[in-house]
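Researcher: I'm preparing a figure for a lab meeting and need a structural model of a single chain. I don't have an experimental structure, so a prediction will have to do for now. The sequence is pasted below. Please return the structure as tokens so I can convert it later.
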Amino acid sequence: MGTVIDAIKARFQTRDIPKTAQGRFNALMRREKGDTAKVAERLGVVRRTVQRYVKGDRNIANSKPEVLKRLEQEVTKDHQPRVRARAQREAKERGLTVETRASFGFTAAAGSTDDSRARRLTEDIPDDLIDPIFEAMRDGDEDKARELIAEGLAEEYFRDGGTRAEGLDVEFTNIDYIELDWRN
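Model: Understood. Here is the structure written out token by token.
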């Protein structure tokens, strides 16, 4: 995955998805209760291909890279739904804090410096961004998660909760580390 998604998963999931392609395929088959048509639809292949995987005539590990990528995405979507839901509920109740060291650049009014520089920040994420962050994690969308975290940090640190630097767009790049936790 990516840096931000990995940080979210490290804090809010108890275990990873299966490591092997066969293990992932088996997890997807269990999730769909053995329905080869549904699995084929989710993987973007024909049903007969899935039937060959099940029967053992074809090894899923030898599939095209795009099928393996799709397999990983689909298994990730379904992975630990109750754990993820509980973490999301608790994040909405308690709040979410991000600690990171990364480069931040700006798009701002003329005359201000917009060169990116490394900063170490620990800020609370606005509550309205918690659900979209968990949705990005579920979808495995690294870019969306990074964008949402950047928006939260921009709002709390750079715009100071809306009291200054209105309209400042923040770029969140070169992440050295990032950790998420409950608000204190």
